[in-house]
Amino acid sequence: MSHTPGPWTFGHDNGCYWVRGPANLGPQSLVVELPSNGWSDPCAEADARIIAAAPDLLTALRTLTAAAPAFRAKPMGAPNSEARRQQDAHVAAEDAARAVIARATGTYPGKSKATGGKSGKAPGKSVRP
Description:
Elements (H helix, E strand, L loop, with lengths): L8 E5 L2 E5 L9 E6 L6 H26 L1 H4 L9 H24 L24
């Protein structure tokens, strides 16, 4: 199953914030409605903004992680060097990005059809060679 295609937009009317996909989807373009406390509800607006950005965020994370494996290929510098600390930070960020992608798409390592596609565990951290 795939999510509603992007780009998503958000707006406010009739006492709620809404997030919609492309208008050519007609009634199916509505992704979510968030009730608000009147016309100025900073929390509901912030939620609508981040939900509307979700397809773009997912695309950006996929792009970053597709380019990242080369960075893991060979350890950089001595074990306690600045280069190694920076590489470790990049690897940790890549692991976090992959975990977010898995959470957003429901694709975790170890998924199998026998378990309904769920491993029962959140994705673990990868180990750098």
